[in-house]
């Protein structure tokens, strides 16, 4: 690393803030000692009540949905139901252990991080904020955690089970009795071979991760001229250096635990031979994945046989981020971890999440003014009985984003406030790997469809109303179904993929809580519009048609 000019002065600058950092750390520890027990008890009691209270329902309903679904064949259903006994019996214990660990983590982290955030720019009275930040907000955060867990146990769980019950017309997954011993053998070999080998790889690379992470953090502190040399970021840098070993240990535990699922995945292959070859190949794939994560040499020293007829470049369990073609100009080496100085250049996940819900609220208000959404639709959503609100509005927003991005020529996605999200500035993480690539594929499919204006408006209706013919005919936005049956089927397929993606988003943590605030704002908007209009629709719940949605310069109106 090139030593920058003025290194001595920067070191003195850094040392001058060490007492400041130590005082903040001491204050954070004292606050955590008082606040953490309250937060921990809140999370523990709330989540435990949900786990134990819903356990009988979850166990019975899961078995019922597996038995009734049309997605699996008879033999596969029997096998799944037999194997389900293990997770059903282990679920209460594992969930309670996870609750204890999560409660401890949040109870300590919330007041700790809030104390350091109190010295950020824009805070008028930093001294008093250092003492008050992270007290009541941490307690409210504990209740928020319980609320989000409740949404997962109720809405996300039943959404997944409903999807299993409603599955139809798809290829039925089944197996033959003669294949069962081979699957069991492959799964057992996967556990016996992959678990110890992957665990050894993890333990071997733990010191490398610890050393490289510390080295990079210290280099960023001393060698950069960026934000780490500012007073607001030095405390975070010191805290990150102290907590880096904890992050390394948690990563190692996650890697070791993943070896079980990776080994058992061998039983999912189409034949015993493929399963055994997978047992050997997954060791190489995991080694290569960790090498990429730690920015070590490419490839792996372990053999990697082809275990499927169609060669695959990576496992579905080990996602990797593929950069677009124009990313060739990017540097080949990127840091092991994203420090504060680098996060200044990337979009934060919370910014994207906030932008999505603001877009849902804005689009919802436009649809209400156009008469496309009724008050009854919003009220039905509260009982989880309306797909137009829960899936239609997010699908509509995503479609707007894709169309906007295509028309602007963006390689990524142009959000509603003209902030562009690309491979370069998107947040890191497996969740964004799982979401960004399907979004890119959907965008390219819409672009390849080369839609006319009427077809584009028709696709908006398909996405919003989830194929409800009655609702689609009641809202006239200028969209006309293509005369070509192939093109019409193509648009219907695009709308189903949009809705499937939105359904996946709706099952994510915090979605229900955030979307409930959006629905409340839309209800208020709809009732205000209802009071201002003299006439109502035939059902007495829809306001008079207003001017259309200001989308690409087009107006919409409702049939009366």
From TrEMBL:
Residues 534-560 are annotated as: Disordered. Keywords: Membrane, Transmembrane, Transmembrane helix. It comes from the Eukaryota. The chain crosses the membrane at residues 79-110, 183-211, 232-256. This is Transmembrane protein.
């Amino acid at each position: 690393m090139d030593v920058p000019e003025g290194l001595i002065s920067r070191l003195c600058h850094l040392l001058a803030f060490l007492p400041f950092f130590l005082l903040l750390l001491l204050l954070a520890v004292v606050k955590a000692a008082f606040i953490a027990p309250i937060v921990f008890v809140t999370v523990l009691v709330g989540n435990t009540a949900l786990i134990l209270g819903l356990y009988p329902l979850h166990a019975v309903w899961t078995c019922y949905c597996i038995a009734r679904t049309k997605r699996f064949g008879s033999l596969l259903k029997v096998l799944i139901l037999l194997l389900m006994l293990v997770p059903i019996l282990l679920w209460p214990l594992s969930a309670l252990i996870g609750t204890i660990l999560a409660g401890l983590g949040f109870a300590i982290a919330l007041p700790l991080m809030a104390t350091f955030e109190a010295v950020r720019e824009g805070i008028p009275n930093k001294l008093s904020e250092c003492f008050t930040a992270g007290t009541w907000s941490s307690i409210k955060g504990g209740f928020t955690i319980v609320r989000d867990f409740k949404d997962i146990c109720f809405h996300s769980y039943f959404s997944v089970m409903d999807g299993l019950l409603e599955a139809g017309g798809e290829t039925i997954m089944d197996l033959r009795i003669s294949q069962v011993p081979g699957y069991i053998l492959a799964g057992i070999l996967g556990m016996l071979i992959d678990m110890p080998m992957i665990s050894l790889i993890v333990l071997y690379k733990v010191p490398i991760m610890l050393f490289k992470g510390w080295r990079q953090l210290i280099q960023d502190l001393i060698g950069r001229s960026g934000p780490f040399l500012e007073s607001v970021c030095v405390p975070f840098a010191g805290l990150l250096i102290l907590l880096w070993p904890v992050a390394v240990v948690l990563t190692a535990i996650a890697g070791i635990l993943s070896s079980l699922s990776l080994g058992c995945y061998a039983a999912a292959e189409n034949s015993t031979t493929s399963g055994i070859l997978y047992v050997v190949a997954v060791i190489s794939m995991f080694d290569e994945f960790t090498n990429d994560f730690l920015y070590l040499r490419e490839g792996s020293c372990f053999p990697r046989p082809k275990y499927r007829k169609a060669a695959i470049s990576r496992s579905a369990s080990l996602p990797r981020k593929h950069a677009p073609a124009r990313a060739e100009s990017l540097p080949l080496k990127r840091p092991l971890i994203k420090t504060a100085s680098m996060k200044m250049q990337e979009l934060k996940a919370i910014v994207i999440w906030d932008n999505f819900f603001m877009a849902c609220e804005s689009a919802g208000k436009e649809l209400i003014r156009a008469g496309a959404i009724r008050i009854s639709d919003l009220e039905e959503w509260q009982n989880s009985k309306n797909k137009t609100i829960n899936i239609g509005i997010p699908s509509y927003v995503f479609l707007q984003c894709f169309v906007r991005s295509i028309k602007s020529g963006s390689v990524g996605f142009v959000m509603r406030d003209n902030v562009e999200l690309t491979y370069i500035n998107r947040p890191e993480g497996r969740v964004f790997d799982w979401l960004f690539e399907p979004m890119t594929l959907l965008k390219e499919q819409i672009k390849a469809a080369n839609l006319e204006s009427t077809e584009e408006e028709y696709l908006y209706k398909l996405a919003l109303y989830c194929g409800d013919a009655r609702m689609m005919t009641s809202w006239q936005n200028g969209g006309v179904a293509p005369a070509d049956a192939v093109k019409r089927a193509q648009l219907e397929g695009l709308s189903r993929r949009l809705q499937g993606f939105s359904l996946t988003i709706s099952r994510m943590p915090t979605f229900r809580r955030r979307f409930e605030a959006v629905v409340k704002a839309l209800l208020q908007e709809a009732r205000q519009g209802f009071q201002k209009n003299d006439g109502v629709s035939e059902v007495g719940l829809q306001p008079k048609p207003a001017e259309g949605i200001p989308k690409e310069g087009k107006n919409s109106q409702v049939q009366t």
